[in-house]
Each structure stands twice: as C-alpha cells, then as structure tokens.
Design brief:
The chain is about 85% helix and about 0% strand. The chain has 18 helices and no strands.
Length: about 400
Amino acid sequence: MLRSIQIYQIIRFSSTLLIFWTFSRVFSTTQVGVIEKNLLIANVSTFFWLQAIQTHFLKKQTYTYNEYASFILLVSACVSTPLLIYSSWHKVYLFSGLYVLFYPFGTLIEMYLIAQKQNKSLIYYSSIFYGMWLILMIVATLLYRSLCVTYGVWIAILFFRSLFCIIYIPLRLRSINLDFLSNLSWLMLTFAIGGGAEYIDGFLIDFLFDKGTLAQFRYGARELPVFVVLANGVSLWATQQVAHSTNTTLEQVLLTIKQKSTKYLLLNTLLSVMLICISRPLYMYVYGKDYLPSSVVFDITLVIVVSRFTFPNSILLGLNLDKVQFIITCIELILNFILSVILVQFWGMYGVAIATVVAYLIEKVLLAAYMHQRTGVAFYKYISLSTVLLSYVVVVGTLIVKYTLF
C-alpha cells in the first residue's frame, strides 16, 4: 500500500508543479502572487481539519464514511459562506470561497481507496483525475491567458470530482455527535498549529512586501514532489504501523521505521546537494529571471528535508499522544513567528525561510525528547543519529560553500 500511496502523491504533486510552472510562463509575478494569496486563504481554511479527518480515519476507522462525509460537508459550507459573502465586495476572493466549498469533499474518495487498500484503483483514479486536471488547466491558461478563466476551469473540475465521489461511494448523511467531534478536536488543533507556520510565512511576506515577492517566496518554498511524496508516504505508513502494533511487535515496527527513514534520508540528502548546486540555472531555465530569488529560498528550504525524514511525530500519533504534539507544535509555531519577524529585518524573505528551518528542527528534537521521557522509546530506536548529523553537515556545508565561494 505504501508504494501505491507514493505513486498517487507523485502524480498529484507533479501535476501541481507543472500547472504552476505554466502560471509562471503565462502570468506576471503580480498575477501569480494573486493566485498564491487566494490559495493561501483557501488552504489555511481547510488544511488542518482535512488532515485531522484523514489521519483519524486511516488510523482508527472508528466511524463510518457517512459521518466523515457529513462532517466535511458541514465544515466546508460553514467556512466557505463567509468567504463567498466577502467576495461580494472583493471579487478576487470568490475563488477561495468556491475552492473551500468543493475541494474538501472530493478528498473523501482518496481516503476511501487508501482505507480499502484498493491499490490499483487509487493509481487509476489519480492518473485519470490529475491527468485531466493538468491538461484542462494548462490548455485553459495558455489559450485564454485570463485569471478568471483559469479560476473557472479549476472550480469546475473540483465540482465534478465531488459529484463523482457521491456516485462512486454510497453515502448517507448523518448527524454529527459530540463524541465524534471530541475525538477529532486535538488532531485538528495539532495540525492547525503544526501546519500553520507555512501559511503564517506567506501572510507575513504578503504583509511586508508586494504580490511579486509573495510569488517568488512561494515558488521557492514549494518543495519538490519527490520529497513530499516520500516523507508523507512513510509518515502515514509509520502512523498506521504503530497504531496497529502491540507491546511485543512495537520494537520491530520501530526498527523497520528506522531502516526506511535512513534509506530515504541518504537518497534525498544526495538529491538535495545536487539541487543546491544547480538551483540557480534550473530556476532561470524553468521559471525565468523573475524567479531567480526563489532559487535562494529553495536552497534554504532544502535543509528541512533532513528533519522531514525523522518521524517522532508519526510515532506519537500512532501512540495516541495527540495532546502533547499539540503543545510542542504550539512552541514551534511561536518560535517560527518570532524568528521570522527578527530575521526578515536582516535578510528579507530569506530570513523567513531560515526561521522555518530552525523552528522545524527544534520541534523534531522536542518531540523525540518527550517521547523518550514519557514512553521510554529512545530516539535511536527509530532514528539513525549518525546519518541525520552527516546529512545536516553535508547539506548545510554545500550551502555555505555555494554562497561564500561562488
């Protein structure tokens, strides 16, 4: 199943990357900044509760699809309504409201296929849906070169995906009880705080600079699909394995996580070093000279790859220690904001990227330290410390050499 999830995510993130490459070639940096601002608003309104639902559903499967679908519909309607009303005065936010209304429900089909372990169906679905999305978006953007047309096609695709989900999965709406909400509450808070740094960074850049700078920052901070796919796939797999383990099998599960994380970390460290070496000409060739500052943000963000392939957070979720992760992610968010505000004064948007890297590393260290103290699960049981340290030395060393000698 892990391989199918990774293939699905490769298709998903690669399609996104190609579509945004098209945007960079057709629209100005200011127009791309407007798109990024719209997506910031839409994503910050949905990411935390959608991640909570997906994690809770795949980890426990305590409730039925009907309850999850009912919750998604209710929250989507409640969150999108203020955005749609606000768009009466500011038309630019109409896309954000419609995105929030239609996007979340369509994700239910992906949850369903993963939970049912329908490996081939997941790959077929992602190939067809994201392939159609990619083709229609690129064709509409190149032919009309209009933000309104691009937005319209995007929303139409999300709408038809929701209809397909209703047809494919037999659903019956149900009332949402308090027990269901209480089970999700800590996960939602944890993901809201943990994932909030990315969106706070975006809003901070938007507040301090112009839309063009926001586009440059977001294009640099957007990770390559291979990193996101491998890390998210192993993280989801690790959470499921720990959640379904027993006292006698946990040690073996942790060892397997360590072996997989070490293998992927070595591979992605090598890839990160190669990307740092070629990032400037790569951005020049792929996006154009207007996005050269994005290559610096991209280089700095690559340091996060090392921390991303350690999984104390996934193990904590598997052990149902959601409240503790919420507290530590709160610390990480506050630290990230404070460092961003300080460092942006010295290095502009590059300072924000540095703050994110430092705060993310500290969060991982705190999670590993707490788990060692609370559960007795030492970090060396699921992390190869020597490999992590070597990876940091190699990646950071490459950055220093690049920006001091060349």
